[in-house]
Structure to design on (681 residues):
């Protein structure tokens, strides 16, 4: 049952007059605000900290409330979300100036905190589609589901460039090359054209940190990007420049990571949240970003403060002063909002933070709220709850899943399969929708098992083929089977706990408490061996957030598919397995031949992966090439066929990877030259 909503009155003041220009409304409101009002607008608290006493939204003058991963109302239904958001909004509007609060959430592959929402493939799978129009539609559907629950702000998309698959957030990246990441930034348009404020993150270099540079138990997440300014601009900064200049993104989130410039010697890293050079300088002045900078979860708490005594409560005065002066506008202080406000007010009083910096931050926040229409329409409605998990959105997700599948090997044209074939399905990821969805699904770290409604890969296969035998571990008799389909890979994880060699998640499901690895788990390897040595023809699907090294078993595998983390619609996997749709996906990251090669990326010297960046066999009849794109696709097909036959010539992997990168960057002529070189052998 929704709460009765109070009427929103509109006194005759400029900032409440929708006919006035936004700039005039901002300035009119700003001059009416006290310092407490302004600092409140710069503060964001977590819903869990507010739920027992939502009047804190008013007493703290909060500018924003958020839901962290797994932080949901009870029951976890669209109507309950709308009710909760409106409750917080009622308190925000009870303040003298009636400034609406802005609710935010991490909807990074669909509105995946909400039970019943459409869960799309993670970004690594979307990068494999090479289809920016599809990505825009996926994020537009996400926006519709987010808005249907009363939320106007999404902390997505991640536009990081993932340079090391040992990183526990690698699946949040579209690609290892900035050109492809930039191509997929249509995600921003999908969200913002759908009425949701998009946030590009994590600014900048979070995917380029060095393994072993992180603090605590983490290995690479929140670590240090050791680089010079030229490489940083080319690899790590480029997606943000495009997001601002081409897509007018509304908000940016700094990274937990640090940057260590090699120009002045290695060993003096600066936390991104503390970098006035990169936030106030490069981002705001250099790139001309005029939107809102929101900190990450307690981001300023990681800023070193040598002046603070050991055991001081966080955030300290030094952390607040440094973070605000670096250029962040709103601060995600999930459980420490009151302390943040007290400390910042004291810093302004002492001169540690100038009022001009406060006013700059508040102008950006207010402008965002006016542009979103929150002053005219502060309350949400449950009328659009049917958008959440709708048939149309699930059909779109199924399409995205099919396009994301990358066919790495297909000996003898085994795929697509015949519907009439006797199929033996095995593997722990065949019938586990939680594993299929990955991290940031219902819980922060995801959840193995029946976490969400949807269709598992096994269920999807059974919907197509009438003669299916399933064995979780591959021990059931396989006599008479025409083909084995083994579905293996990873269990869910997210940042930190997903780092290879990182800590275990003590509160996650037992299946998730396995060492994170770039190779298949022993049980998965055993199932592959067990099935592929008994059944004459064997297909292996790898459901994972990153490549898994399978070189030692490749000889016994007839067809190998990178399925990534497809989400709730496993039917998309069956669509390509049985030829309802063709395989068209291409690797957005290099697939290593050995663990020792990692990190391995397109453009590296001595580039010899098992499958290069851009690799992806196609199935189906694509007809006679009639466009430049189709001609190039056909040439790639020919080149890959020659490689599979052992006639690609020396350096074929580097040539194909560079050809794909050139094509993405718009250099078709170079792509033609490189592909023809491979064909010539």
């Amino acid at each position: 049952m929704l709460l009765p909503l109070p009427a929103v009155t509109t006194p005759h003041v400029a900032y409440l007059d929708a006919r006035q220009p936004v700039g005039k409304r901002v300035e009119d409101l700003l001059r009416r605000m006290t310092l407490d009002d302004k600092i409140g607008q710069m503060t964001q608290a977590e819903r869990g900290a507010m739920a027992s006493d939502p009047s804190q939204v008013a007493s703290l003058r909060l500018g924003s409330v958020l839901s962290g991963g797994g932080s949901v109302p009870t029951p976890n239904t669209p109507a309950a979300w709308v009710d909760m958001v409106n409750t917080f909004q009622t308190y925000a509007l009870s303040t003298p100036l009636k400034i609406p609060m802005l609710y935010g959430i991490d909807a990074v592959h669909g509105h995946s905190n909400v039970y019943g929402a459409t869960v799309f493939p993670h970004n690594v799978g979307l990068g494999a589609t090479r289809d920016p129009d599809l990505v825009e539609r996926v994020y537009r559907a996400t926006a519709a589901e987010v808005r249907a629950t009363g939320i106007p702000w999404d902390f997505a998309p991640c536009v990081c460039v993932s340079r090391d698959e040992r990183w526990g957030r690698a699946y949040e990246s579209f690609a290892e090359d900035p050109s492809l990441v930039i191509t997929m930034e249509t995600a921003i348009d999908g969200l913002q054209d759908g009425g949701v404020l998009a946030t590009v993150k994590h600014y900048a270099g979070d995917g380029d940190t060095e393994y072993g540079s992180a603090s605590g138990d983490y290995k690479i997440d929140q670590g240090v990007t050791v680089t010079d300014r030229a490489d940083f601009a080319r690899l790590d900064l480029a997606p943000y420049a495009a997001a601002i200049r081409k897509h007018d993104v509304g908000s940016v989130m700094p990274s937990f990571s640090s940057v260590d410039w090699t120009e002045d010697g290695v060993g003096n890293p600066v936390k991104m949240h503390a970098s006035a050079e990169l936030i106030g300088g490069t981002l705001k002045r250099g790139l001309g970003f005029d939107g809102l900078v929101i900190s990450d979860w307690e981001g300023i708490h990681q800023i070193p403060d040598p002046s603070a005594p050991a055991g001081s409560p966080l955030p300290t005065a030094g952390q607040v002063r440094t973070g605000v002066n670096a250029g962040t506008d709103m601060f995600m202080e999930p459980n420490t909002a009151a302390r943040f406000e007290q400390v910042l007010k004291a810093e302004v009083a002492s001169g540690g933070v100038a009022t001009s910096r406060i006013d700059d931050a508040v102008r950006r926040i207010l402008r965002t709220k006016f542009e979103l229409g929150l002053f005219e329409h502060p309350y949400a409605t449950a009328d659009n709850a049917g958008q959440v998990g709708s048939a149309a959105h699930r059909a779109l997700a199924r399409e995205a899943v099919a396009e994301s599948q990358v066919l790495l090997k297909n000996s003898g044209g085994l795929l697509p399969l015949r519907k009439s074939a006797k199929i033996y399905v095995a593997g722990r990821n065949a019938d586990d929708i939680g594993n299929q969805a990955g991290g940031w699904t219902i819980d922060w770290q995801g959840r193995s098992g029946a976490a969400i409604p949807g269709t598992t890969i096994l269920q999807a296969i059974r919907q197509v083929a009438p003669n299916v035998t399933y064995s979780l571990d591959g021990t059931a008799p396989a006599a008479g089977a025409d083909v084995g389909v083994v579905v293996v890979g990873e269990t869910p994880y997210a940042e930190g706990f997903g780092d290879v060699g990182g800590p275990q998640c003590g509160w996650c499901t037992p299946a998730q408490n396995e060492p994170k690895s770039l190779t298949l788990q022993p049980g998965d390897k055993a199932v592959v061996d067990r099935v592929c040595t008994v059944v004459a023809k064997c297909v292996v699907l790898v459901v994972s957030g990153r490549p898994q090294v399978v070189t030692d078993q490749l000889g016994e595998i007839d067809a190998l598919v990178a399925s990534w983390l497809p989400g709730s619609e496993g039917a998309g996997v069956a669509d390509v397995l049985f030829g309802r749709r063709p395989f068209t996906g291409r690797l957005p990251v290099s697939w290593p031949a050995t663990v020792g090669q990692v990190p391995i990326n397109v453009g590296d010297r001595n580039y010899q992966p098992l499958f290069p960046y851009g690799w992806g066999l196609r199935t189906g009849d694509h007809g006679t090439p009639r466009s430049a794109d189709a001609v190039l696709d056909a040439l790639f097909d020919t080149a890959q066929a020659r490689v599979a036959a052992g006639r690609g010539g020396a350096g074929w992997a580097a040539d194909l990877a560079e050809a794909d990168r050139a094509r993405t960057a718009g250099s078709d002529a170079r792509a033609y030259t490189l592909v023809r070189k491979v064909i010539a052998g």
In short: The first strand starts at residue 43 and ends at 46.
